[in-house]
Every structure is written in C-alpha cells, then in structure tokens.
Write a structure and sequence with these properties.
There is one protein chain. With 299 residues, the protein is mainly α. The radius of gyration is 22 Å and the shape is globular.
Length: 299
Amino acid sequence: MKGLASFVMRGRLQALVVAVAGAGSLLFCWVSAAAIALVTLRRGAGPGAWLLLWALLPAGALMFAFGDSGPLALLLGTTALALVLRFTVSLPFALLASVPVGLVTGWGVAVFGGPVLEQMLAFFDQFLGNLEQQMAVEGAAAVTLARPTALQVAGMLGAANAVLSALCLLLARWWQAALYNPGGFGSEFRALYYPPAVSGLLLAVALGLASLGLEYRSWAAIAVVPLTAAGIALLHARVALRGRGTGLLAGFYIAWVLFDLVKIMVVVAAVADSWLGFRQRWQARAGNSVSRRDDEDSD
C-alpha cells in the first residue's frame, strides 16, 4: 500500500493513472478516492480538484450506464473530507464532516435515485423471499420478514458512503504519514476525541432519528460515524498504552463487524470518554506507576 502511495506522489501523470483507473471500477473506486485525498492533503486543493474532475468521467459513465452512483458519491465525499482536513488540520473536524456527506448522499439517493432504489428493493424482496422459503422447508414456523422501505435503503446508502469516505480519508492520511512523517498517523488517530458538547449533540441527533421509526434508524447510523471512529481510536490508545499485540484489535474488528452490540458499545465508550477523559486518566496512572518504579529502583 505504501508503494502505491509512493507511485501516486511521483508525479501528476502517475496520480492521474491511479485516480482514473480505479474510478471506473466498483471494486477499486476506494483506491481512486484515497489517491485524490492524498494529493489534496499533500499538494493542495487545486491538484486534488484536477484529479477529481478526471476521475468523475469514468465514475459518471458508470452511473449513466448502470445507474450506480456509489463510486461518484465516494469520490466526492472523500474529496470533501480531505479538503476539510487540509484547511482545518483537524482530523476530528474532518471526520465530523462525514455526517453531512452521508446525509446529502442519502437525500440525493432518495430524491434522484429512483431506479437504483427500485433495483435494491427488488433485490431485498427476492433475497428475503428466498430466506422465508428456506425457513419453511426446514420445518420452521412460517415467518414473514419485514422488507426495507425506499427511505430506509436511502439511509443505508448514505451511511455506507459516510463510512467509506471516512475510511478513505484515514487511508490517505496514513499514506501521507508513511511517506513524509512515519509514525505520525498512529499518534494522531489515537488522540481522536470529541468534546462533550459535540458528542452529546451527535448522540442526540442519532437517538432522535431512531425514535422516528425503523426506517430512520439507518439515517441515525450516519450521525454516529464520527463517534465510532473516536471509540475505535480510544481502544487503539488503550492497547498502545498497555503494549499489547494486534491480536486483541483483530478480534475486536471481527466482533465489531458481526455484532451490533459491539457497535453500540463503541459509541457509548466514545461518549463516555468525552465526559470522563479516559486517556488522561490512563496516562496519569501510567505516569504514577513509572514514578513509583523509579523511586523503588533508587531505594
């Protein structure tokens, strides 16, 4: 991955090749998004916008040919976050911008993405119908599974774009640090934190949307994307402080993907950290432990 970042930064032509090649692919558009973000962070808004304009050509062609606006939305969302980070030099603020990115994406799909929503609703209907038939064959009681609504699917797509845009930005930031400031990204990410007012507002928005009904819960997920990043950063800070290996983190990420309860716990941990300052407490305890050991050694 570092080699790819180095290739992108060799020159304008190399960056253009990566940005355009990945933008026309459903599987590799994240590479283009991260490459554009890297150039934006390192060289400025002008070069980044130039790459984005070229990358929008294959992404736009993909949207018009197949109706899939995912790559286009990811390119625009990631570039927006990169611009925020470039001008504010604040990773928390940049990740906070993933909320409007997700909301705008969901709104755009709900208003203009009729064909895409119809395709996805048909897919869900077929998938859940097959699942119902399989359950009936296996002797289980007849069950009718709830189908998602168009508004719910639009929220899912908005949340997905918010998450992917944030991940592409973090990848670009890691690339930048690996090339020009080794080790800098780790310390920056582990310090990711939101003050009580911000975390409280995000949580209130998420709970307010979720209270409106099932179809708004996917929209509520958009509001907690920054808190999820802060909660994961808190875990990384704890692991780094205790000097544990990567096994714990690997197990956590598997559990986070599989279990909704883990996702909720991560958000709760981020909000609690905003009010209680876990990192400062841990560092103070670590400092006291080191001081006691030094005193014992001197004795």
